[in-house]
Amino acid sequence: MIIRLLVFTLTAGFLLTSPTARADEYVRCLQNQLTELGYDPGPVDGLWGKRTKAAAIDLRETEPRLQNIDMLDNPRRISAISWCREVGIQFSKARQYRPVDELPPDMLFDDDMTLFEKSRIRSNARRARNELRTFYRIDPAGLTTVIAGSDIRQLSDNLRKAMRKRGGPTNGMTSFVKEHCKSADPYAAFALYGIIVICTDAALPHEEAWKNISKSLNRIMIHEFVHIYQLEYSLASTHPHRFRKNVNLVGPAWLIEGAAMMVELDLSRFDLDDTGFGGILKLLSGVYGTDLKLKNIKEVRSDEEYLISRYATFLLVKRFGLETVLDYWKIIGAGQSPREAFQTQFGMSITEFETLFEELRNSYVASVRYIKETS
Predict the structure, then answer these.
(1) Which residues does 41 contact at the CB level (< 8 Å), separation at least 6?
(2) Are 17 and 262 in contact (CB under 8 A)?
(3) 3-state secondary structure of 189
C-alpha cells in the first residue's frame, strides 16, 4: 500500500514550463465572481491585468468578511485560486463560478472497469469532499481529476491527458506510472496538481483487485484530497514552474503525509484528544528504536517512513490541535515560506523540531511532557 503526495518527480518537465500569459481558469472564475457582485474586472478572458486586480482590491476593501483572510493579501495571478475559492465561500451567488462547482468531477478509468466500480469511486470521492468540507472547512476550488485502473498503458494515457489539460509536462508518463504503481499491493495512490491516481495490483484478476480495496476507497480519497488541499492552499498548484530540485513549496515530506494520516485517523474515530497511555502508545510503538531519523525523510514510501511521519505529526496535533496543523498550508498560501510558516504555527524551526523528535520518539514520558507543555 502506498499513498503519497508527489511534488518533485516531474521537476524536469516543470522547469520547461514558464508562466507565459495564457487564460487561467481561476482568473476567469474571479472575473465572473467580480462581475456577479457588481465590480468591473474588465473582459472575462482569464488573463490577469490591472482592472482585475483593482476590482479585487475594491471588493476586499468593501466587504469586511474578506478583510481578515490573509491569503487574499497581494492579489496576483498565482493567488487567483485563493480568491476564486474564498469569494465563492463567502458569497453564495459567486460560488457557481468555481471550477469545482461549475463542472462535474473529471473521472478517467480503465476500459474494463465496471459501472459499479466507477460508481463506487465517484461516490467515495464525493463523500470525501463533503466530509473534509463539513468537519475541517477544507473546500478546494479546483476541479480534481481522479484516474483509476490497473493497466499501465491506460493509466499512462489518462495521466497524460489530465496533465495536458493542466498545461503540465506529458513526456515520460509510462515510466512515471510504472515507477509509482509498481508497489500496488493491493493498491498505490498519489496526488499531483489537481490529479489523484489510484492503481490496483495488475497481477490480480481485475474484479479481485478492486474487491480488495473496496473497503478502503473512502480512506484513500480522504488522504489524497488532503494532498489536493495542501497543493491548492499553499499555491503550489498554480506555480509549478517554481519547483526546483530539493526545493519544496509545500513543506517537509513527513508533515505532508502525516497531516493526511491524521485526518484519516480523526475520521476513523481515533481519539486524537485522548492523552491517555493507550492512544499515544498505539502510534509510538511503531517508531520506538528505529534508526531512520525524521530529518532524513525526503519522500515517504516505506512503512518505516510512514510510521515515523505519522507519529511526528501526531505530536504536533496533540499539542497544537489538528486545525493548527492544517492551517500550516494556509500560512504558506499567505506568503510565508514553509520554514517561516512552521515557525509561525509551532514556535520552533523545522530543524529544531526534527532534532527534538529523536528524543520524543524513544520515550513515552518525554512525548507526554511535550504534549502537555503550553505553546
Answers:
(1) 30, 31, 34, 35, 51, 52, 55, 56
(2) no
(3) strand
User: Cα-atom radius of gyration of the chain, to the nearest Å?
Assistant: 21
Alpha-carbon gap, residue 149 to 147, rounded angstroms: 7
- Could you tell me how far CA 113 lies from the centroid of its own chain? 26
Give the DSSP H or E segment for 191.
Answer: strand 187-192
How far separated are the first and last CA of the chain, in Å rounded?
Answer: 36
Residue 232's nearest CA partner among 142, 322, 103 is 142
Closest CA to 15 of 247, 338, 191: 247
The DSSP line for 275-343 is -SHHHHHHHHTTTTT----GGG-SS--SHHHHHHHHHHHHHHHHHH-HHHHHHHHHHHHTT--HHHHHH
Cell of 322: 489538528
How far is Cα 87 from Cα 82, in angstroms, rounded to an integer? 8
The total number of residues shown for the chain amounts to: 375
The whole-number pLDDT of residue 4 equals 54
Backbone angles phi, psi at 192, to 5 degrees: -120, -155
Predicted confidence (pLDDT) at residue 240 exceeds the cutoff of 60: no
- pLDDT band for position 214 (50/70/90)? confident
Nearest to 119 by CA among 148, 98, 139: 148
Q: Which one-letter DSSP state was computed for residue 247?
A: B
| Distance between CA atoms of residues 109 and 351, nearest Å | 42
Three-class secondary structure of residue 190 per DSSP: strand
CA distance 157 to 174: 8
6: confidence class by pLDDT, cuts 50, 70, 90: low
The mean pLDDT value for 101-125 works out to: 90
